[in-house]
């Protein structure tokens, strides 16, 4: 049973990645008219340069052979050369990866701590506190991260001068300092959803009969919360975390641009503007890959926290 | 209140497991007060099984839960509930924890939802003892002994297994073991066998009776099934719409019910022995106290009601072998 679960999750992951690869590669071909003129819009090229570019992008081949050729390189983790920077896409990504990974993990930690904390407080304190919580989470869900970024910049960077307005710092400590405002911007835009979903999950457990039984046995309140309410919500928590990490990675495009952080997100925005196709393709594939990897891990970890899944080989 | 806690150990030796007197509970729903219980009195002596019988909404669950201080939200509670010498009404949170950890435990209806599905059975079984501060090894030893007692094969292995690996009947035996783990003076069984199929029910009832007899604990057996109660219990308390309407020895209630409601309950159950008779259901639907008419709450459904029934709530008075709250007790043939 357990092997069937693992098999079906891995198969789903491979299929998702395959479809994403086709779409991402196809986007180059879907550009109306001649992709080369679209990519080089505005610059005059000699016909030799034009031909070289067509060759480099694999546009002389048919879709299928072009795709297989591209996929072959990608599977060897070779994303080609950047058309703007001239260096290899791998080098560009590798240089920016530590910054973006730190930012995503930093923001995820903040978002989870605040979101789960609010969810627990709201779930256990119905009434005025819960209602205030609903308003706060609504605000978080409704506010886009660039608005938060502008407010944070105006207040903490320009007015109070507590944090730098741009840059990603040198060395780990300085980087964390530089990434604090961007991480808070991402947190503000995401913790509301975490709080909402987990509040519902906690509430469901709190009114369940096994909690009533524990209460009837004189189990201390904190132990009930820990061993029954939070313990039984670990599955949904893992799923949320997986989705949050993927969403935050996408979110870095806006936030890194707003705060002038030299990371993958900003590279994506710049590359789209300059039509640096190999870079855009690599980052797109990376974000799909991250989503697939985190949610597959969350699914595969479920049997370890819920024995019932182990028995039936599926989700509840 | 503080003095009850400190004196409790001395008083416990003499005190009855459960002594409820004049218990009234009213809850506030949307700014409206809705009464649930009206001056309920009952007691459970040491070594005694008392059946608390009534239809849904009669207040039997609310009554039994009050023994653990598990009152509904926004409830105004008057009267007295003394468990093993400890007054529950007005008790502090710490006193209630102590009560639930050492003196009284409850077996709930559905074992499938009583046990946390993601934790091991050992965690469930030892939870009560661990809450009291008993060490893990000792709690495990106690739990394994109890599992053996309730008829679970390979108890040590069962401790590491999960609830979904057991049938409903087996799981309810485990729940019973969990309830007995603290060595309670009072066990509250709230429809503890209702969710089980008939043969399993008989086994679990027999098990409950054996364990109760061995430990000499008092038991309040809450059920809607008057015949089951008559077979298991020493005494029976019949509730209707938040009030006690009849109480007496199980044999007396079964043989000579005095309240028309008790008569109706027995008449609506099929008999396997004796002469064959048509089932006579009680007309109408069971009422909660909040929607009951003035006077006797049962009068709208009663086959022998007279205008005098509307004037006041009848008090419990002795009539033949039982005590009954009816102005015309034992008069079922009048219909």
UniProtKB/TrEMBL annotation, chain A:
Identify its protein family. Answer: Belongs to the binding-protein-dependent transport system permease family.
Q: How does it sit in the membrane?
A: Multi-pass membrane protein
A single BP term in Gene Ontology: transmembrane transport
Q: Which domain of life is it from?
A: Bacteria
Keyword line: Cell membrane, Membrane, Transmembrane, Transmembrane helix, Transport
Start and end residues of each ABC transmembrane type-1 domain: 97-298
What this protein is called in its record is: Peptide/nickel transport system permease protein
TM segments?
A: 7-28, 103-121, 133-156, 176-195, 234-259, 279-302
Species of the source: Agreia pratensis
From TrEMBL, chain B:
Q: How does it sit in the membrane?
A: Peripheral membrane protein
**Native source organism of the sequence:** Agreia pratensis
List the Gene3D superfamilies hit by this protein, alphabetically.
P-loop containing nucleotide triphosphate hydrolases (3.40.50.300)
Q: Name one GO molecular function term.
A: ATP hydrolysis activity
Q: What is its main location?
A: membrane
Q: Which NCBIfam families match?
A: oligo_HPY (TIGR01727)
Q: Which UniProt keywords apply?
A: ATP-binding, Cell membrane, Membrane, Nucleotide-binding, Transport
Name the record gives this protein: Oligopeptide/dipeptide ABC transporter, ATP-binding protein, C-terminal domain-containing protein
Looking at the UniProt record for this protein, which Gene Ontology cellular component terms does it annotate, in alphabetical order?
A: plasma membrane
Origin organism lineage: Bacteria, Bacillati, Actinomycetota, Actinomycetes, Micrococcales
- On whether Membrane is a keyword of this UniProt record, the answer is yes
State its location(s): Cell membrane
Q: Which residues form the ABC transporter domain?
A: 18-266
Pfam families registered for this protein in UniProt: ABC_tran (PF00005), oligo_HPY (PF08352)
Record-stated family: Belongs to the ABC transporter superfamily.
**What is one process in the GO biological process aspect for this record?**
peptide transport
Q: Span of the secretion signal? A: none
Per its UniProt entry, which superkingdom is the organism in? Bacteria
């Amino acid at each position: 049973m357990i092997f069937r679960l693992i098999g079906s999750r891995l198969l789903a992951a491979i299929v998702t990645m395959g479809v994403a690869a086709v779409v991402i590669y196809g986007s180059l071909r879907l550009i109306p008219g001649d992709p080369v003129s679209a990519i080089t819009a505005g610059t005059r090229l000699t016909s030799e340069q034009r031909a070289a570019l067509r060759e480099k992008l694999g546009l002389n081949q048919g879709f299928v052979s072009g795709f297989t050729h591209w996929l072959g390189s990608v599977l060897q983790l070779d994303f080609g050369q950047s058309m703007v920077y001239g260096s290899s896409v791998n080098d560009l990504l590798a240089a920016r990866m530590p910054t973006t990974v730190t930012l995503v993990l930093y923001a995820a930690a903040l978002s989870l701590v605040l979101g789960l904390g609010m969810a627990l407080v709201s779930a256990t304190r119905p009434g005025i506190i819960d209602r205030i919580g609903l308003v706060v989470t609504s605000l978080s869900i409704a506010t886009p991260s660039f608005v938060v970024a502008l407010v944070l910049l105006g207040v903490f960077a320009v007015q109070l001068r507590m944090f730098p307005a741009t840059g990603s710092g040198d060395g780990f400590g300085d980087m964390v300092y530089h990434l604090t405002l961007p991480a808070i911007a991402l947190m503000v835009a995401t913790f509301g959803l975490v709080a909402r979903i987990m509040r519902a999950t906690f509430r469901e457990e709190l009114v369940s009969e096994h909690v009533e039984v524990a209460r009837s046995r004189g189990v201390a309140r904190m132990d009930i919360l820990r061993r029954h309410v939070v313990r039984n919500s670990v599955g949904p928590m893992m799923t949320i975390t997986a989705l949050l990490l993927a969403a935050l990675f996408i979110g870095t495009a806006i936030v890194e641009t707003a705060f002038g952080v030299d990371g993958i997100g900003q590279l994506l925005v710049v590359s789209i503007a300059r039509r640096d196709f190999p870079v855009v393709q690599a980052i797109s594939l990376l974000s799909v890959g991250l989503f697939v990897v985190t949610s597959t891990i969350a699914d595969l970890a479920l049997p370890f926290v819920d024995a019932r899944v182990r028995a039936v080989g599926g989700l509840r | 209140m503080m003095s009850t806690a400190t004196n409790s150990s001395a008083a416990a030796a003499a005190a009855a497991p459960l002594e409820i007197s004049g218990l009234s509970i009213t809850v506030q729903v949307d700014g409206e007060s809705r009464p649930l219980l009206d001056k309920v009195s009952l007691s459970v002596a040491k070594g005694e099984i008392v059946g608390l019988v009534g239809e849904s909404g009669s207040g039997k669950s609310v009554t039994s839960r009050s023994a653990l201080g598990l009152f509904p939200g926004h409830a105004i509670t008057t009267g007295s509930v003394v468990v093993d010498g400890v007054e529950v009404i007005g008790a502090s949170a710490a006193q209630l924890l102590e009560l639930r950890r050492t003196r009284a435990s409850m077996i709930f209806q559905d074992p499938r939802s009583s046990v946390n599905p993601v934790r091991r059975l050992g965690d469930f079984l030892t939870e009560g003892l661990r809450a009291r501060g008993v060490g893990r090894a000792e709690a495990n030893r106690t739990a394994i002994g109890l599992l053996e007692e309730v008829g679970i094969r390979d108890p040590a292995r069962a401790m590491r297994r999960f609830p979904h690996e057991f049938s409903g009947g087996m799981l309810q035996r485990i729940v019973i073991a969990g309830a007995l783990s603290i060595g309670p003076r009072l066990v509250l069984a709230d429809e503890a066998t209702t969710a089980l199929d008939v043969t399993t029910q008989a086994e679990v009832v027999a098990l409950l009776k054996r364990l109760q007899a061995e430990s000499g604990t008092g038991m309040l057996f809450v059920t809607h099934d008057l015949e089951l109660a008559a077979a298991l219990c020493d005494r029976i308390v019949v509730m209707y719409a938040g009030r006690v309407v009849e109480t007496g020895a199980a044999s007396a209630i079964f043989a000579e019910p005095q309240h028309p409601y008790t008569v109706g309950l027995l008449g609506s159950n099929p008999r396997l022995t004796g002469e064959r008779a048509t089932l006579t259901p009680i007309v109408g639907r069971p009422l909660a106290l909040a929607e009951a008419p003035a006077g006797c709450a049962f009068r709208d459904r009663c086959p022998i009601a007279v205008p005098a029934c509307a004037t006041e709530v009848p008090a419990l008075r002795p009539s033949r072998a039982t005590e009954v709250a009816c102005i015309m007790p034992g008069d079922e043939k009048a219909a």
